[in-house]
Each structure stands twice: as C-alpha cells, then as structure tokens.
Amino acid sequence: MAVDIGTLDTFPKLLAHHAQVRGGLPAIREKALGVWQTWGWGQFAEEVRALACGLAAHGLTRGAHLAIVGDNRPRLYAAMCAAQCLGAIPVPLYQDAVATEMAFPIQNAEIAFAVAEDQEQVDKLLEILPVCPTLKRIYYDDPRGLRHYTQDALMSYDRLQEVGREFDAKNPGFFDREVAQGRGADTAAMFFTSGTTGHPKGVVLTHTALIDRAHVAAQMEGLGDADVVLAYLPPAWIGQNIFSYAQPFVTGYCICCPESGETIMADMREIGPTYYFAPPRVLEALLTTVSIRMEDAGLLKRKMYAYFMEVARRVGAKILDGQSVPAMDRLLYRLGDVFVFGPLRNVLGMSRVRVAYTAGEAIGPDLFVFFRSIGINLKQLYGSTETSVFVCIQPNGQVKPDTVGPAVPGVELKFTPQRELLIRSPGLFKEYYKNPQATSDAKDAEGWFHTGDAGYFDPDGHLKIIDRVKDVGALTDGTLFAPKYLENKLKFFPYIREAVAFGHGRDRACVFINFDMEAVGNWAERHNLPYSGYVDLASRDEVYALIGECIEKVNLDLSQDPELANSQIHRFLILHKELDADDGELTRTRKVRRGYIGERYEPLVEALYAGRDTIHVEAQVKYEDGRTGSISADLKIRDAKTFPAAAAKRAA
User: Fold this and answer.
1) What pLDDT, in 10s, does the model give residues 555-609?
2) Which among 406, 348, 405, 402 is positioned nearest to 375, based on CA atoms?
3) What is the H or E stretch that residue 609 is in?
4) Which CATH architecture has domain 11-213+232-248?
5) How many CB atoms are closer than 10 A to CB 467?
6) CATH of 473-651, one of 2.30.30.40, 3.30.300.30, 3.40.50.720, 3.40.190.100
7) What angle do CA 545, 551, 556 make, to 5 degrees?
8) Is the dihedral of CA 62, 68, 72, 73 positive or negative?
9) Residue 651 pLDDT level (bands cut at 50, 70, 90)
10) pLDDT per position as a tens digit, 422-435
C-alpha cells in the first residue's frame, strides 16, 4: 500500500524513505541491448545524490529550472529528483519536438541547465543556443556520436556524477540539509501544455499537489511495491509523469523503461505490468493490430474469434464487474478465455494487468467495451495537467463506457450555466508561469479551475464529458454538434486513424479522414490492390468505399440517438497527407488542432459544403530532419449514406 505521506511531503524525502525501507527492491528497470538492467531504491538514491551534488557544484540553485529532454530513462528520472533535492525545478520537454519548439520553454523559464538523453537531443539544444543565451550547460546520458563534440557547454552524465561525488566528499552534510529544507508547498515540477491554441503555458505544480493526488488514487486501487508499470509515453506529458514518477515515489512500485518504441509490445510481454495506462490512440492502435492479425488468420480462427467475441461483448464486462450472468454464458466465456481472450491478452502484454486506465481524450464506447469484454479491467479517468491528473476515476463495479466516473476523494465539481466543468481540488496547479492573466482566467478567486470542458452528471453522479466548451456547437436546425464525439466514433474502426469533423453553424456535418496506413495497406494487399504509398491509396475509389462503409455504420448508430440523429455525417474526403505534429496539425500528445486545420484547409472545408466532387490541393509539409517539401493532389469528395431517425427502430 502507499506510504504515509504525513511528514514525507517532498519527492526527495520519499526517495530517502524508500531507500531506507525497501532499498533492495527494484525501483526502476531499463532494457538495453536486449537485457533488463535494474536499479534498487538504495542504488537509485545514491545516483540521485551524486547527480544533485554535481549540479550544485556547477551552480544549480533553489528556484532555478533544469530542462530534461529524452525518452523514459532511469538517468533522466534521477535528474528530475536531483533537481528537486536542491529545491530546483525540473522541466521535462517533449523528446519528439523540433528544436524551434524547445526554444520557447527554455526562454520562458530562463533555463541554464539541461539534461539530454542522446546526440539527437543535444543537437537540438546546440541549434537553439543562439536564441537561448541563458542555456550554459548541457549534460548528456548516451555518449554515442558525441565523441568529437567540443562545445564548452557539454559534459557527460558520468563526468557530472564524478564531480558530484567529489563535491559531496568535500561538503559533508550539504545534500541532507538541502533535502531537509524542502517543503510540500515548494514547486516540484513545471509541465508545458501542448499549446493547442497559441504558445504553451508552463503549469507550476507543487510537491503537495502531485503527492496528494498520487496517494489518493493509489489508495483507491490498492497499489503497492509489488506492482509493475511500463513507462513508454513521453515523460514530458503529465499523464506519463504521474504514473512513472509521482505514484512510484508514493507507493514504492517499479517502473520499466522499454528499449525503444519498436520493442514496446515485446517488452510488455516480458515484464507483465500489473498497472497500465494508455491514451485512446494507443488502444486504437492495439485494436488495429488485433484486427489485422485476425483478417490474416485462417477461416477456422476467424470464425472462432467472431463467435467468442460476440459472447464477450454480451457478458464479458458483466463478469468483470461481478454481475450475475447465466450459467451457460459464463461457461462459454470461460471457453473463450482459454481459446481467444487469454491468448489475446498475452499477445497484448496484459496477462497480469490488474487495473488499467485510459485518459487524455474521450474514448469511443465500442473501443472501451472491447478491452473490458476480453477481461482487462480498463477504466476511464479524467484530469489534466492543471489538476495533477486525478479528478474522476471509475470505481470497480461502477464502470460505464460513456462516463469518467465520480469525483475522487477531496475533489469538488460543479457546472456553469454554459455546461463548463469547474474543479476545486488539493491537486490544483499553483499558477501558469509568468502568465498571471492566464492564471486568473483559469482559476477564480474561490479556487475553482475552469476546465473548458463541457459535460454533465448522469443519474448516478458520474461525470460525462462531451467535448470542449468552445467546440460544442449546433447545426443550423439547432441539433447539438459535438465534433469530438463524432471523431471518436469514427476512430473506433481500425482503418481510420484520425478524423476532423465540421458542422457548427452549418446545415450538416462533414469530415476529413486520415486512414491508418498499416491497416489500409494490409487490406489493399489482401484485395490485390497495388499502391505506391499513402497519397496513392488516398486517391483510390476502393479506399473511399471502405471508409464510406465505416461512416455508414456510424450514421446508423447516430440515427438511434434522438439528440444526435441530425448530426449524421453527410460528406467526407480523405486527406492527401497524414496529420502531423511537425506541421502544427496535431499537438505533441496527438490531439487534433481542429481550428488550425480548419483554417489551413479552408478551401477543402468549403468544397465539402459546396457540393463539389473534387478539389485540387497543394500543401507544404515539414519532415523530421527539418526539411520542407510540397504535395500536390486532386482530392475526391464523396457523399455518405445517412438514415432517417426512425430507421434503426423500424429495422428492430
């Protein structure tokens, strides 16, 4: 179970506690060259001590900021804690951000020190040095490729530790005094928002805010030092950070860092996590992988899968929630578990998962039910960077596909007349860094945080989020238009990777589609459809027919909802390129920037509503190495099949 956080009010104090109480138990693992390396809590604490003393020797002081950029790595997490030991503030940056995107946070926080994972991240930091004059020292973990770098600002992580040990020996008691000075009200970390609109904002969170919310959630789920978590999402994202830093420091559980993004599935199967977190896009990708494998399977396997998945959809979630199920259905489900569900969980690396969360954006009900139906205790939670993540969690036995559960202990919720959700919680952020106007706009004098999310409570007191307040609109006939709701229903299909819906102030809803290249490519190969790449497939009538079938199924479902029947999708086009964060179309957490896309592709939006069948487009794209190029294509626009509101009822 979680530790008593009464006097352990900072992360360095929690680390010292774990080093003393469970020093030999694993704190963090990393897979390198195919082998898992393990740091016990005692060893990890010694690494943090040497690193903190090295940073102190170089001038990092209380209140200063330390940038951290890279994938999930033990040394980068050690750097976070080392900064906190000195009263400094770690600022994780997205490792896939281009150099120019890193410039603003470094300038805004006047960062002088940075810890980078490898040559790629070092190159980015060196590139922006001319516009970031405060950045004086860059420490790197992986030395590969950096042998001939001679910049004065550079130093290896290993050398920094050596400096720290020398400093520690000459200044006995320094480190312990610094840790003891820390208080729960001190700033623990700063996370920059994804910048969906305008510049990112630095969200300032205290030790108390993060520790309190991590502790409450851990108690709800009974987490302890026997649990295991895979750390595979960007550590600059508060969602990953809470699961791979705040909660392990509170509970003492072990986190595991995969070797690379390509080995995540294999690494999951090896470590068998008991506690798992995935945003909807990851779950969508997993389901797509399953669907592709089943389409390639033999006839017998496909029939067995279809039969038992129907059983699972009917009773799987009920069995998971401990509800009464007819004996025959229970027996069939057990057979399905032997032949289908168990092997499927094993392939996904989820055989040992005791509790799993999804959050970050709304999840399609069908996608959510799929994972619960095969025996994975997937639950929705609701929160944000500003709330230290944990606002609402679905309790066991009270899980619904269309809500995010009731408020967790300590949290108060209410709505404005415009349906905007307001939150008051011990986990609320302190401020937006150097942005008092944004702080006062978001957090009022009574301590209520204005989320910008629209929703309501269901009869059981569970929170239901429908969209962002600014995005919820209406068609010209007054029908509620919730674009994210439509997009999520479309993204349940394995062939659709992203969707962007339009309709506010117009007479009907229309969408842009990005198909999933792997899924559609696999489909094309099985249907003997030759292609040269995404742009080629995006122009094929066969692919339009495939996507049209998906939209037709969504429309049939919408026709059964009296409030949303008139928001069925009438027209669609397949974009000529995949939406990309480097082109500003997605945030770094892969949320669609709908407003920007609507402006950038305004001629395409107008063509959808003008009844045109084709439109020529030329667009500039940015590649990972910083180069730019252009794409020219003639896009097709197609009508989607819609249904009268009563069609589904008549069919029944």
Assistant:
1) 998 898 777 889 999 999 999 888 988 888 888 777 888 889 999 999 999 999 9
2) 348
3) helix 602-609
4) 3-Layer(aba) Sandwich (3.40)
5) 22
6) 3.30.300.30
7) 125
8) negative
9) very low
10) 999 999 999 999 99
